[in-house]
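ok trying this again, last paste got cut off
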Amino acid sequence: MFLLTSNVQPLFRGILKDDVMADRVKVMRDHFARYRLRGCSRSLKVYFRRFSFCELLNLANVFLQIFFTDLFLGGMFTSYGGSVWEISNMDPEDRTDPMNLIFPKVGKCTFMRYGPTGTQQTFDGLCVLPINIINEKIYIFLWYWLVILAVVTCIFMCYRGLTVCSRAVRKALLVHKSNNVVEKVVIERVSDRISVGEWFFLCQLGSNIDPYVFGKLLEEIDKLLMQEGVGNGGIQKIEKMA
């Protein structure tokens, strides 16, 4: 993987001649071929699975934060944002502010003190809790932030599931990464001959290089895969040339 990325960086140091760029694209293609020969396709699958698992952990992290925050606030956090939104459209005289239920600004305080004769005396009073004015704003922000994160992460996990299950989606993403530089039939042939791990690696590569260069790389990979005996003789010739 380092060999591939190490040859990508010079492509952005200036405007290169077509023959120079073509040579460097072929170098990346040859490295890709060696990876297939050495059985690195399996390691790329493992890399993709671990990457997807980390994305799933992001979703679990969001829901766990919602769960524990709700537990901390006595089960009132999950409905907190919705209740605040509802009262914002109500008449002020009819409002029952849910923020006061969770973060009261005034509370009853009991003070114990001793009188002149040493007898313990109890005094009741009202205590102002100004810190809760800040707390209610913090938690309403957290509610909306966590809900947005949960929705976005769920949508992204659905997208990740589509990339795993649908070859058409994987083809469409390669077309997008190459910015329609290459013909769709080329991308279809490449997608049909590579594994999911190799596809994911190419997408990661396409996100970090110029779309034109990525398109040329896909064309070279297509030529490589179209060669007769690409799994044996074709790649072995490249190995000998190195």
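PB: full thing came through this time. The CA atoms of residues 85 and 140 lie 10 Å apart.
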